[in-house]
Amino acid sequence: MGTVCKRILAPIKPFSISLRSCFYPLLKEKINGKVGDIIDILGICTTLFGVVATLGYSAIRLAAAFHSMHLLDNSSYLVPLILVSVFIIAILISLQGIANGFRILSELNLGVTFLFMLLVLLFGPTIYLISAFTENIGTYLSGLIRVGFKAYAYDVEHLDWFMDWTVFYWAWWFSWAPGFGIFIARISRGRTLREFIFGVLMVPSLFFVLWFTVFGNGAIWVNEHLAKGALGRAVNDVGALLFDFLSYLPYSGLTKTLALFIITLFFIVTINFGIYTLNNIAIEDKSQVSPRWQSMFWGGLLSAVTFVLYLFGGIEILQSTMLFFSLPFALLMSVMAWSLLKGLRFERQYYSTEVSDLWTGANWRSRLRQLVIEPKRDDAILHLKTTALLAMRELRQLLIGTYGLNVTLQ
């Protein structure tokens, strides 16, 4: 019995809800070897520099926000000072419990962001924005294929815009793919594919169209009717452009304060998200709660990399490092999509066979063998390792992270 217990509780390498597990339909058990380690390392580097680039942009916008509201002078030391200060706050929050702190900050951020967008919609040209929202949905749907494949081969005068905007932002989204994929997978367990597609693709896309309508079309309308072209001349000053736009709306003091609060909150949430994601990819046993020193390590590494790269190369070096890792990961995502398709086909075939066999005489010999032959000890140990033990570890993590209980697993 002691030998059995030792084998059950022996260290195993669970791959559920991990980056390497996406390739299980293709690689099978090889994901627990060097190939899986390479996939995780690439995911860590892609996530790290994607978050670093985002934090660099956020610090620049936050510095411009403080300067626009006449709170701090826009000196060369303002961005590094903001980086250090916000990182210290974010790491302190993560030490109180990364799961709870991240959830509370995200919910607060979401609520304040909705309020901010609603105020801009009400204070701005409301009727025009509602009409533009309807047209923007139609424009998005009708041009999804055409614009998605447009590479400006026959429109070379706008090729620079394509490289500086489309390619860069696609690479930026690819750099956030590992973190978002793991995070969405964790909160989507138990949902059907139909629910997943609706909740992850359709609802956020609709919200993005609404957001860009309120602020994009709103800024265009203000630039043409109130600012007389002043916003267009300041389009390169991204950090201050939002506050210049809000200056032409009623109750600008309220909306500017909300904007400053949201930008700061986004900064802190981004750091906590980076720590959470890097913890999840790096830890070997996904069912275990990451130790606090590991959160401090990733938070310190994010802070140091962002600070050093920005200090010696500015925002351009942050972009370059992000592109260097995100584009190879985009190729890896193509293989990941193939693996997902293969896994879905296998799962459909498996469950359709299981259900149909209960009502027909097909495969009756194999079903009779399962009923007559007693499972071996190795089969029971394998089931306990891959199913029961993982479930108990996940329950322990939930009780510790969510309810703050002191739980041990024996």
UniProtKB/TrEMBL annotation:
Primary location? membrane
Topology within the bilayer: Multi-pass membrane protein
**Which Gene Ontology CC terms are recorded?**
plasma membrane
| UniProt-listed InterPro entries | BCCT_CS (IPR018093), BCCT_transptr (IPR000060)
* Entries under Pfam families matching the protein: BCCT
Q: Which keywords are on file for this protein?
A: Cell membrane, Membrane, Transmembrane, Transmembrane helix, Transport
Q: So which domain of life are we looking at? A: Bacteria
Cell location = Cell membrane
Residues that span the membrane, as ranges: 38-57, 77-98, 110-130, 167-185, 197-222, 258-283, 295-315, 321-341
Similarity annotation: Belongs to the BCCT transporter (TC 2.A.15) family.
Name recorded for this polypeptide = BCCT family transporter
Instruction: Tell me the lineage of the source organism.
Output: Bacteria, Pseudomonadati, Pseudomonadota, Gammaproteobacteria, Pasteurellales
